[in-house]
Structures are given as structure tokens and as C-alpha cells.
Amino acid sequence: MSEELTIFSKIKEIVLDINPDDILNDAREYGLNVNAIRDFAGQPHNHAFIEKLMEKYATLAASYCAASGATSGVGGVTTTITLGGVDIAHMAAQLYRLNQKMAVLNGFDLENTVHKDKSQLIYLKALGFDAAAQSVIRAQVIKAAAEEVSKKGASANVTIRLIMTATKLLGANLTKAQTVKLIPFLGGALGGWLNYMFAKNAAKKMISEYKSDYFDRWQANSR
After folding, report:
1. Using only C-alpha atoms, what is the Rg of the chain?
2. In sequence order, what DSSP letters do the residues of the chain get, joined into one string?
3. pLDDT, tens digit, for every residue of 143-156?
4. What is the rounded distance in angstroms from the CA atom of residue 192 to the CA atom of residue 162?
5. How far apart are CA 23 and CA 17, in angstroms?
6. In which residue ranges of the chain is pLDDT below 70?
7. Per-residue pLDDT reduced to its tens digit, 77-96
């Protein structure tokens, strides 16, 4: 199996199992009175609880990213070369999954095109892509969408293509930092730490963006 097919399979495995009902159940355990995604939009007085749940999800995602980074670096050159691309794809996919969870918590309907586009822009911004890079990625995704429009599972494949494109650019951006994984055994610890910190920083940006967007929408609807 080629590396691209391996990466595609890994992303599909991680991303396509989001269940909004699980998020609703978690939110209710945090004391939020929500029965549908739209109910999150009417919780400005409880947004602190939404933030706490976002932070919980962020820590979990960062832990998964750290485990992947440690695995790819533990064997030094051999595992870094073999698993490096898959590791970055795994991290990109975990962060996309996290982004979807945060979107739901902030009242985004991911079946709504406007909401989905906004959540994807937040994801790309959180990964550190500037406006120019975001435009390149979005253009490629739009092209893929046009090509996939008549195919079964088109929406899912376009999402995966977005993450794969982000993975390639992210890999180029992280190349220098990822070289620490070339050190056998120590590379595993450093690789895990780098992935964890990258994921936590990305999550922090997501939380900030979603919080800002949430209250902007709330204020607009209150006028």
C-alpha cells in the first residue's frame, strides 16, 4: 500500500466517526440542558462549561497526537522515515476531529454549508496557515468537490482531501522541528512532546476562535 493510501485510510478511520449524540451526552454531564445541536447556541450564560468541555477534548486529542509522535520517533531514522508522514496525517486528522467537536459545542450545524466552511477556516487557521495558504487549500478542495460531486460518499472524500492537503503543507512547515525524531529512543520522547505542544496550541486557537464567533453570533441575534 502506498503512503498516500495509508494516510487516506488513517484519516478516514479517525474523522468519519463523529457522533453528535456523544457530544450532547458529554455536555449534559457538564450540566448543560441540550437535546439538539441548535440548543448550544442559546447557552451564552453557560459558555464557561462549553469551554471546559472543549479543553477536555483538546487534552484528549493532544494525548493521541503525542502517542503518535512518540511511536514515529522511538526507532530513530527508521521509524521516522517510515511513519513520519502518517504521524503528521494522524495529527492533522485528530485536530480536524477536535475541530468538529468544538464546532458542535458552539452550535454549528456541520450539514450547513456556511457553518462547515467557517469551521474549516478555523481549523486551517489553528494549524498556522495564513490567508494565502488557506486560499490554496480551499481552492484544491473546491476542485476536488467538483470532481467528486457525482460520486458516492463525495462529502466525506472532500473532507479527507482537505486534511490530506493540509497534511502535506503542514509536513513542510514542521520538517525542521520533526528532525529531533531521528534520535533513537530520545526522538520518541521529543516527538511526542512536540506533537503534544503543537496540538495544544492549535486547540487553544480553536477555542479562542469559536468563543469569539459564538458571542458575535449571539450579539447579532439579540439585536
Report:
1. 18
2. --HHHHHHHHHHHHHTT--HHHHHHHHHHTT---SSGGGGGG-GGGHHHHHHHHHHHHHHHHHHHHHHHHHHHTTTHHHHHHHHHHHHHHHHHHHHHHHHHHHHHTT--TTSHHHHHHHHHHHHHHTT--HHHHHHHHHHHHHHHHHHTTSTTHHHHHHHHHHHHHHHHHHHHHHHHHGGGGSTTHHHHHHHHHHHHHHHHHHHHHHHHHHHHHHHHHHHHH-
3. 766 765 555 444 55
4. 24
5. 12
6. 1-17, 70-85, 144-145, 147-157, 172-190, 223
7. 343 433 346 778 888 889 99
Q: Which backbone phi and psi does 185 adopt, to 5 degrees?
A: 65, -60
Evaluate the CA torsion angle 192, 194, 195, 196 in order and state its sign.
positive
Specify the pTM.
Answer: 0.81
